[in-house]
Write a sequence for this structure.
């Protein structure tokens, strides 16, 4: 009886999960992991969601990635195309028949032009890939804040070690 009373007063120690948080546009992203899973929690203006991946399905090699200028070229060409179409419609005989077509095309042109301007700032990421090379999640690199940079690098090294450790374990799927 005495031992059971002592056991009820003992609080089990739950190991702290390493985590890293960053902003991705308007979303707040938090990544954390334990010995078996990687968790991603996203929350923003339009809601929140969570993703979970098994560590033994992930690659321990985290790969760097940066935004490419290929999408900038396509966005700028699309913006130019919509802008020219808006001008042609504005000065053609179609404009009196469809008076809202030119403003809608101009709005589409402005939208793609803004994507181009936003994309001019190069962004850098560390990608967490699955074993088959697909990107599961990304960690934003912000080298301006040195404390964030150190905590990000520590998180990445711990995550890589945890993935390696998870790959050493054997998991069996029961049907």
């Amino acid at each position: 009886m005495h031992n059971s009373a002592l056991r009820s007063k003992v609080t089990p120690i739950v190991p702290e999960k390493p985590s890293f948080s960053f902003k991705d546009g308007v979303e707040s992203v938090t990544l954390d992991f334990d010995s078996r899973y990687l968790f991603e929690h996203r929350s923003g203006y339009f809601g929140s969601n969570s993703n979970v991946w098994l560590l033994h399905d992930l690659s321990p090699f985290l790969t760097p990635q940066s935004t490419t200028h290929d999408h900038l070229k396509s966005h700028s060409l699309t913006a130019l195309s919509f802008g020219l179409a808006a001008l042609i419609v504005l000065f053609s005989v179609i404009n009196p028949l469809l008076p809202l077509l030119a403003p809608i095309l101009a709005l589409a042109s402005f939208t793609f032009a803004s994507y181009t301007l936003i994309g001019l700032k190069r962004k850098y990421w560390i990608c967490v890939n699955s074993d088959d090379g697909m990107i599961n999640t990304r960690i934003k690199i912000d080298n301006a804040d040195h404390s964030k940079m150190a905590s990000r690098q520590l998180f990445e090294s711990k995550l890589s070690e945890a993935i390696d450790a998870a790959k050493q374990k054997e998991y069996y799927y029961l049907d």
Observations:
- The longest helix spans residues 146-168.
- The helical segments are 2-9, 70-90, 94-97, 101-119, 146-168.
